[in-house]
Amino acid sequence: MLRQNWWKILCVLLLVYVFIAGFLGGVPAKPILNETIRNLYFHVAMWFSMMIFFIVSVVYSIKYLRSNNHIFDIYALEYAKAGIVFGCLGVITGSLWAGFSWGAFWSNDPKQLGAVIALLIYFAYLVLRNSMTDIDKRARIGAVYNIFAFAMLFPTIWIIPRMVESLHPGGMGGNPAFKDIDPRMEVVFWPAVFGWSLLGVWITTLRIRLGLLSEKTIRKENR
Amino acid sequence: MYTKIRSLSLLAGSWFLAMAVHAQDSAATKKVEMADRFRADGKIYVVVAVLTLILLGLILYVVRLDRKIGRLEKEIK
């Protein structure tokens, strides 16, 4: 996976398709949203990608704890970083969208607050890691904390926003928007989620490869 | 009497007309505004072309970075 090419080509094809069909394809005419409904292919796809990266990250953290193999720690760190980048993009794009559709860039919506809390918990993961100089200790405590951070995703972005009244679709026990998504949009949205996720994975694998390289050079110098 | 009936029917007629116009008005405001004109002019293709170019440019950047890291890997191996 790390050095293969077919999925990178797939990623480019999917994203080009999303950029073309996302603007030329049909969308339902809904009041308030109007044409901004097309943001679904970009803003919401960021969140889906973020969740995928955080899931992959926690899997590698568990793998690290089971094996003590330092490579898994690099994987977990880089996937968490990718998740943070996509999450920040999600917050910023969401705020911009809200500014024009809901009338305020920030309205303390439960989903906005939950997403920001979740991201802050992941920021703490990076801060915690960098507060330690011992590589093994850093990896071990980082991995344990990463599991906690992942567990906090459940209440902050998956449970609480659905239990309370929200400006976002899917408040009050609903399923966020995906019950009544227009079929014309579905054929662009899922490729968008997949394409953006692959782009994130691509960039993350590059960072992992760099991490492995620097690891190697450090080991060579110490020899 | 006759003029009274005529004026009353005229009033009723104009009321119906007014209601009809009003109904059309609210139907027009209820229609959700989409960028149909923008699309009809073909300007949407300009937007799509610009965005696709930016996307491809960024992808090219990532591809070159990918190759560079690949070369480094070969060197260090």
Detailed description of the structure:
The complex is a heterodimer of chains A (223) and B (77). By secondary structure, chain A is an all-alpha fold. Chain A has one domain. Chain A has six helices and no strands. Chain A has helices at 6-24, 43-67, 70-101, 110-130, 135-163, 183-222. The longest helix of chain A has 40 residues, at 183-222. Chain A is globular. Chain B is mainly alpha-helical and 77 residues long. Chain B folds into two domains: 1-31; 33-77. Helix content of chain B is 87%, strand content 0%. Chain B is built from three helices and no strands. Chain B is rod-shaped, with a radius of gyration of 33 Å. The relative contact order of chain B is 0.05. Chain A binds chain B through residues 3, 8, 12, 15-16, 19-20, 23-24, 27, 29-31, 34-35, 199, 202-203, 206, 209-210, 213, 216-217, 220, and chain B through 31-35, 44, 47-48, 51-52, 55-56, 59, 62-63, 65-66, 69-70, 72-73, 76.
The gist of it:
The complex is a heterodimer of chains A (223) and B (77). Chain A is an all-alpha fold.
Low-confidence parts of chain B = none
Main sheet specs of chain B? none
Q: How many domain units of chain A?
A: 1
Instruction: State the helix count of chain B.
Output: 3
Name the overall outline of chain B.
rod-shaped
Query: What fraction strand of chain A?
Result: under 5%
